[in-house]
């Protein structure tokens, strides 16, 4: 059986993203046990919508990323502040997995935390209480 370049690429993408998805699922469950509002804020932020539906174009810095999105109960916000130059793209997969990991590993009972990601740590990811 000979694989076409497209089939090879799809197989590589599948096998390299499966561990991320499995870990993300476990972290999302642990985060939901801590505080469902944290997962709600993550979902609202990472699944950015436009007129056509969900769009995968979160960039840091940007007004969308720094303003963030609130949970359905309005008490928790997910956002990414940044000083990246040029702006860096945050894919949906990494948006979810990194926020869920932050929440799951947070020492706080509600999962709130801050961490730096991106080239040279230019992205400050925040999961925090709305004041």
UniProtKB/TrEMBL annotation:
Residues of the signal peptide: 1-22
Disordered, as annotated region: 58-82
Keywords: Signal
Domain of life of the organism encoding this protein: Eukaryota
Compositional bias ranges of the Polar residues kind: 64-76
Protein name: Uncharacterized protein
Protein's organism: Zymoseptoria brevis
């Amino acid at each position: 059986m000979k694989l076409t370049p497209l089939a090879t690429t799809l197989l590589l993408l599948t096998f390299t993203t499966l561990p991320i998805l499995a870990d993300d699922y476990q972290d999302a469950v642990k985060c939901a046990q801590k505080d469902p509002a944290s997962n709600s804020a993550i979902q609202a932020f990472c699944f950015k919508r436009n007129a056509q539906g969900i769009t995968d174009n979160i960039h840091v810095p940007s007004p969308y990323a720094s303003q963030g999105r609130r949970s359905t109960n309005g008490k928790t916000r997910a956002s990414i502040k940044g000083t990246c130059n040029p702006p860096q793209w945050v894919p949906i997969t990494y948006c979810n997995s990194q926020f869920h990991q932050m929440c799951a590993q947070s020492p706080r009972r509600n999962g709130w935390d801050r961490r730096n990601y991106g080239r040279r740590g230019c992205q400050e990811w925040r999961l925090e209480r709305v004041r």
